[in-house]
User: Fold these one by one.
Assistant:
Number 1:
Amino acid sequence: MNIKTLKEELSAIIGILSGYEKTIDSQITEVHPDYRSSARNLLRYLILRSFDLRKYHSSLSDIGVSSLRTTEAYVLDNLQNVVKNLHLIDGTVYNPPVDIQDITSYTESKKIIRKNANKLFNGKRRIHFTEIMVTLPNEAAEDKEMIREMVEKGMEIARINLSHGNLEIWEKMITFINEVATETGQTVKIYMDLSGPKIRTAAIEIPGKKGKITNKIPIRKGEHIILTSRDTLGKKSDFGEGSEQITKAEVGVLLNEIITDAQIGDFILFDDGMIKAKVIDKNEQELELVIIDAYKNKLGARKGINLPDTKLNLPALTERDIELLPFVCKHADIVGYSFVRTGEDVKKLYAEIEKLGADELGVVFKIENKEAFENLPEILLNGMKRNKIGVMIARGDLAVELGFERISEVQNQILWLCEAAHVPVIWATQVLDNLARTGIPTRAEISDAAQAAQAECVMLNKGPHIASAIEILKDILIRMEGHGFKKKNELRALNVAENFVTRLDTLKPVL
């Protein structure tokens, strides 16, 4: 592609961006002043990523002009500088059509990201920028030295999962965390996860071998089972000669909305995606499913259910979450918002926090399902009405809902959008998991931990060898930070950007 064509096509994109400025202004009026410029940059980035930019990179590099691959954090300044340099090479004059006003350089954007991360996490200077968060096991409530060892090895944020334990356990953990922080002189923030709705199978109690009660039902590929809102303790399938299924297995659910909202043709996944089924029939109380794939031969009680094709009419903020919020606001520095799916969900949590006057509470939006990923731009824009926010990439649930083959692509897209919004990211799920559980890391998880250095925080889960995992992760983060900040990408058009811009177009003023 020659210089003239590059100038014309990139200038045309700038012109399109400039045409959205009034619409962008209208979309950021309620954003917190600290995030106003970032919100503007995010919207510009979404518009830019509705184009396929891959065709420009090689031509720009061939003539020694910086490509668009690092454009996330300072969209318009980067794009206009590229066109300006093309004009200088061509000996022509460039008059930028847009007064940038906001973020005017890569250096400035980097400072904003670091400032926002320090505001949410810890503001002290450290030898590595990326924070280390660790999930505390319930045993930590009885073992102060366990917490001390984690802090000494490098834990900077202690995570308390409110899905497990009770107030007594959590209060003991909090006491120990604060004591250890004082005794070691370290700053240790407390992060608490709200549980959200429990989308799981119900209790199962059926006779097993020798009269023992079992909480699992045998299943196999091709079998039909019933998922029901009726009170049931489960039932096994019966098979006749030739493995013909005579009666169908039956499993209850904890939330009746699963039965109401799922439609024929929807896929339903159980137990972290180990069992995949499809709805083939339904009535008011039941879904009939056919097992498509089964990597386990039994379906257990209280196992997670994912419905990637179903829009569930469930509150992201449950009554139990609202009951616990005063405790969270009193003791936590950061709250994790599970099952957030839309901008409206963000507004509901903010309304509850406002009632409690918790102005300094940080909020992290856990992106853990397909709907949340698709609505991430709206979640971010509504989230930026407060100035201490972050995003957690809950890679386990995302991989189940979107498919394991897509998780690498999706986690990168979340990183890009959050970089454009200057919102810090927590990289979560199974980081150094084998090391924490067995004491021996795999090569794959060491590589994954190295990639996690792109985020502003990395979360480790509990395990008997967690202290070793913290120590190794800290070493990896120190080493990787010296190699770069974020990374370059090809910039094909993103569906999440195209869909958002389509909605944004309906808000453009008629000229």
Number 2:
Amino acid sequence: MTENAPIDVPKPKGIPADVPFLRTIKSYVLRAGRTTIGQAKAYELYGPTHLIPYAPQALDASAAFGRSAPLILEIGFGMGEATAHIARVRPDDHFLCCEVHEAGVGALLKRIGEQDLHNIRILRHDAVEVIDHMLSPGVLDGVHIFFPDPWHKTKHHKRRLIQPELVNKLAQRLKPGGYLHCATDWQPYAQQMMEVISAEPLLANTSDAMGGYATKPDYRPLTKFENRGLKLGHGVWDLVFRRV
């Protein structure tokens, strides 16, 4: 994660004026990517019901989703393939998903429409600000962070998302028994994740396997990217910790 100067992001064509759209991103590096016609149409059709505007006040999840249910935070969902799958196989849970990239948000909105998903809400905003200002202590039942940017170069390791301060914030917002599930396909990052999360006193590892890595939970699907990597001999590491 980076702390950059604010970046002005133009509103994509095809997104109506009344659909919430964040123009200033205070962190993350925005990557180039075009919004397709289908994604723009999805913004128009599903944005009003599935996008939540950022507001520096506690989120009323029951009002946002229209019912009460366990709340799972996902940070950085990419193009939303895994998110949509998990929401489909876990219909009794709510998924609050943070992503700053417009194409990814459009892609997930498109999947929401195609798969008739009602248990996803999206915040197109910096997840750290969402955690700080919209999520109260003990409000979350789970957190998903799948394949965050590994920032391979040593000089960029400070930009990695999984850092002690963020892990502590997440732990505080988990209910007792709630879980933090991270996954990466970059072994050095997996090792750093394990060191950082293991050092958080509010969290306990659910795995007693050598190295502490967990067996991939059934709900997390193998994405096309991940399958391709596995065929090339690349590893994938899952970490699942519980709030004590």
